[in-house]
Specification:
The protein is an alpha+beta fold. 24% of the residues lie in helices and 28% in strands. The longest helix is centred in the last third of the chain and has 12 residues.
């Protein structure tokens, strides 16, 4: 389901907001998209960029992914886990829609790249999936924010010691790259995953839904055939300042020296969609957090009867999770919490709940904490643990892994070891009977 097909389905469901009035990509469009966060939005009249349409909010709700993958939202974790464990080779096609118009080298100023906030260093590509080839492990796909420097160059933020950074460090000269923008949701999800070296993320995408690949024009890299726009170029060893820019936690990231990408070709569809992903908002959070849920699920499954996992948007979809279990032993809550931290090393706080709690409803989770938790019994503190560089409250020392204190809350129904669940009925909601209001109000 490419972007055009998804937008048609979203419109049919009444989800799509369409903005036909002229909108400036410099600050104005991002402000409107922010007001619509959680909703797919289509901007059809971009000031200074005739022929281009901008979409935002594609990945801003679980129901959008469920629509794309034809499943229920609470089943997404299982679809992701299966695809992660069973990648399938993505087929290669001769031609792709993004090859309809080709500019060599092209002009980045012609693209509706957004400036999101006044303090940003400039215009940023935020939904670009960067394809590289490591000489030892092969093709890799990952997200990198790209600061436009001029009409042919970007500064690329590379997280140290991960796929692109490793391939770049191994290259003696420029490293060929391709940047795909305007991608189907299942490809966006797959590119967010962190498989073992040698597993190409697009093969995980193929296990979710069809994800054909096409060869680039100026190099031999393979990119999604259903992209709207592809930028081809070289990741050089020249460095420049990158940042400030808002990151996942909605706080401003620091300025770093980062490598420059030089663009050699720009190719796109005749009437392309440009995907603008709002930094720190729901799209950013879901694409970061949701692909980590299967890892937590797998880790907890080793020690407890786990039912589901939710990395929560309130925890920046990175630092907080809720784990739902069927409690079979007195210490299952503690065991599940400890396993959750192993499943996602950046996790800072975790809450473990029973099957009767809706893990996607923060009010329900808070109710479980309020009615089932005693701090001295059910709150566990883990001091000075390896943590996330995205947490502004963590302890950060340059060149070292960030450190943080972590906490877990066992919000399951208390247990007495002598005779099983203790007074379980007294910890469950008493429900009123359901009635058909049409009988009373109709």
């Amino acid at each position: 389901m490419d972007i055009s097909s998804f937008l048609a389905a979203a419109r049919k469901n009444g989800w799509l907001a369409t903005i036909d009035r002229p909108v400036d990509p410099d600050l104005e469009l991002a402000a409107v998209a922010y007001a619509l966060d959680g909703c797919p939005a289509l901007f059809t009249n971009i000031i200074g960029h005739p022929g281009w349409r901008v979409v935002t909010g594609l990945a801003s709700a679980r129901r959008h992914f469920a629509l794309s993958l034809n499943c229920e939202p609470d089943q997404l974790i299982f679809r992701l886990a299966h695809a992660f464990a069973n990648p399938r080779p993505a087929p290669l096609v001769e031609t792709a829609p993004w090859q309809e118009i080709i500019h060599r080298p092209g002009n980045l100023d012609d693209l509706p790249i957004l400036k999101h906030l006044p303090d940003d260093a400039g215009r940023y590509v935020t939904a670009g999936v960067l394809i590289t080839r490591d000489p030892e492990t092969g093709l890799n796909a990952s997200y990198h924010r790209l600061l436009q420097l001029d009409n042919r160059r970007f500064a690329a933020r590379l997280v140290e010691n991960r796929g692109t950074h490793a391939a770049w460090r191994k290259s003696n000269g420029d490293l060929p790259v391709a940047i795909a923008i305007g991608l189907p949701l299942h490809i966006l999800l797959a590119a967010s995953m962190s498989p073992a070296p040698g597993v190409f993320e697009m093969n995980i995408a193929q296990a979710l839904a069809p994800a054909p690949l096409a060869r680039c024009i100026t190099n031999d890299l393979l990119v999604p055939a259903d992209a709207e726009l592809v930028l081809e170029g070289r990741l050089t060893h020249q460095l420049t300042a990158e940042g400030p820019f808002v990151d996942l936690t909605e706080t401003s990231d620091i300025v770093r020296q980062q490598p420059i990408i030089e663009i050699d070709a720009i190719a796109h569809r005749r009437r392309p969609f440009y995907h603008g992903l709002l930094p720190g908002q729901l799209e950013h959070k879901l694409l970061m957090g949701m692909p980590k849920e299967p890892g937590i699920y797998a880790a907890v499954k080793e020690v407890a009867d786990v039912k589901n996992v939710h990395i929560t948007p309130g925890g920046a979809s990175w630092l907080h999770a809720v784990v739902q279990i069927r409690k079979r032993r007195p210490d299952d809550g503690r065991r599940a919490a400890e396993a959750a931290f192993r499943g996602h090393g950046s996790l800072k706080h975790v809450v473990v709940v029973d099957e009767d709690i809706d893990i996607f409803d923060p009010n329900d989770v808070e109710w479980a904490i309020a009615t089932r938790v005693q701090a001295t019994r059910d709150v566990m503190i883990f001091p000075d643990q390896p943590s996330s560089s995205l947490d502004p409250s963590a302890r950060h020392i340059p060149g070292q892994k960030s450190r943080s204190d972590k906490a877990a809350i066992d919000a399951t129904i208390p247990w007495e070891t002598s005779d099983g669940p203790a007074h379980a009925q007294g910890f469950r909601r008493v429900a009123f009977p359901l009635v058909d209001l049409d009988d009373y109000l109709g």
